[in-house]
Amino acid sequence: MLKKFLNLKTILISFSLLVVIGVIIWQGVNYQGNPDPTAKDITPGAAIINTAILIFREGLEAILVLSAIISGLVRKKQDNYWKPISAGAGVSFLATIATWFIVVGIISSVNASELHIQAATGILAVIVLCIIMNWFFHKIYWQGWINLHNRKKQKITGNNGESVAKSTFWSLFLLGLTSVYREGFEVVLFLQNLRLKVGSDVILQGALIGLALTMIVGVLTFLAHRRLPYKKMLVFTGGLLVVVLAVMVGETVQEMQLAGWISTTTINVHFPDWMGVWFCIFPTVETLLAQVIAVIYVLGSYFAARYLTKRKAMKRQTQAVS
């Protein structure tokens, strides 16, 4: 137990250090180490961190699914089975990049003001992030989605010892493709709102950091054959995403107010400018209420999922005793 705790602590410390180092490097290159905290709109640094956290989070989920699918094949030394799955996962990365440019092209072709487009993409980003942060959804995802892929894998690889037929190869290829592309598609949708605010270059920097962290975990998992505490890591990155969600909700609601989509009800409280710049906390009823609801939604689904899990475990123990 102590060993697992120390391993998790090491992972969390290493991740935090990488984030801090990335921010320091970004500050040194772009602002000579002294960014302006009173600048308007979301800062490039915040956008980089948000992008990196999201991609790393989704990357962890993709690795979790792939490791569940491939682990049994590797133990049985069925190289002819896991290779097409890995090839499909690789192609899904290229498909995600292609999807990015397609979505960018669609948004660019929309004949609407920039403020309305940002508000619309902001709503889309919040919806995607709420789905990602729903712990009931992920409970179903981890169990149902992984079990579904494993059942497909067992059905396809039913003929033990025989070479992989052409149809079997493509079935396994599609298995790897769909298991990863789903995560990539979510990332593409979420990042469009940030792209409109800070540009593609800033998003690329955050994406490279997130991919680097994902590759480190992937190498440790598939090459070093290390078993990492994925769920604990997902909970940790989920905590970071709660902050990202609150920022995105506050910013999106403000854009909807500026676009005239919803009303603006100010409160007689002064917030420092940096709270609006860094955390999108504004003195309006609509923004604050939306942020509170979003955080309660995420935390509520998390603790409710934990409660049901413990309740089911206690029920099984009671049945075993009786």
From TrEMBL:
InterPro entries, per database record: FTR1/Fip1/EfeU
Transmembrane regions listed in the UniProt entry: 12-29, 49-73, 85-107, 119-142, 163-182, 202-222, 234-254, 274-305
UniProt subcellular location: Membrane
Keyword Membrane: yes
Membrane topology field: Multi-pass membrane protein
The UniProt record lists the keyword Transmembrane: yes
Family: Belongs to the oxidase-dependent Fe transporter (OFeT) (TC 9.A.10.1) family.
Protein name from the UniProt record: FTR1 family protein
Annotated source species: Bacillus yunxiaonensis
